[in-house]
Write a structure and sequence with these properties.
single chain, 234 residues, mainly alpha, Arc Repressor Mutant, subunit A, two-stranded antiparallel ribbon, 11 helices
Length: 234
């Protein structure tokens, strides 16, 4: 584990690179505790001050975390870590609602297939209840934005893939302001509102009977209707 530097660079940078290499090769795994500072400095053949600088940088990079009592650990990666780069890109695209709707369509048409394969009875009951809430909001003339968003998030939850759920949650959150007015205009048309309600119910029935192809077809049609209407309003 001795640190050999072939080119001139700050010692602490070489330490950072070495520890990252150990993580990449699996010699250090998420959750592993690093050696105490003195022992680690001796193994790497660097000064303790250089090691401290390197550890501070790795903590700042979210590679390590430090427990005041036990020392430094390799940070366990989370779904939030995986989704962060995508979240940043989507946030930068927030003004382009068309792009966001297209991405949402890609995610949700596949998620609904998984939902049809994986949803439990309790999942279907929750989804059906949310579907009724959307219909009640529409027929009462209330803003259905919150209930409709929840309905689509419930579908993705039925897919039992937490990463897809986070992507969908991020998409709906970012496009909320841009898509909300378009949805309200769509639902102001009685015929489109009835189609909207029917397609929601058809999705629930397809998931309930475990029919991935039917669920995908209805969802594809539902999102296409919303996208077409949105483009017409621009």
């Amino acid at each position: 584990m001795s640190l050999k530097r072939e080119v001139q660079q700050p010692t602490y940078i070489a330490v950072v690179e070495k520890i990252q290499e150990l993580i990449r090769t699996g010699e250090l795994a998420p959750g592993d505790q690093l050696l105490p500072e003195r022992q680690l400095a001796e193994k790497l053949e660097v000064s303790r001050s250089s090691l401290r600088e390197a550890l501070a940088m790795l903590v700042g990079m979210a590679v390590l975390e430090v427990n005041a009592r036990d020392g430094a650990y390799v940070r366990k990666r989370s779904l939030e870590d995986a989704i962060h780069p995508l979240a940043l890109m989507v946030f930068q695209e927030r003004e382009n609602v068309i792009h966001l709707m297209e991405v949402r369509g890609i995610v949700e048409t596949q998620a609904v297939r998984l939902a049809a394969e994986r949803a439990t009875r309790a999942d279907v009951e929750r989804l059906a209840e949310t579907c009724r809430r959307v219909e009640d909001d529409i027929r009462a003339g209330r803003d259905a934005g919150e209930s409709d968003t929840l309905f689509h998030l419930r579908i993705v939850e039925c897919a039992k893939n937490p990463l897809v759920s986070q992507v969908m949650s991020m998409l709906t959150h970012v496009m909320k302001e841009g898509y909300g007015p378009g949805r309200r205009k769509l639902l102001a048309d009685p015929d489109l509102a009835e189609t909207f309600i029917r397609e929601h119910a058809d999705v629930v029935r397809a998931i309930e009977r475990g029919d991935p192809s039917a669920a995908e077809a209805v969802m594809r049609e539902h999102i296409a209707m919303a996208l077409t209407h949105f483009l017409e309003q621009r």
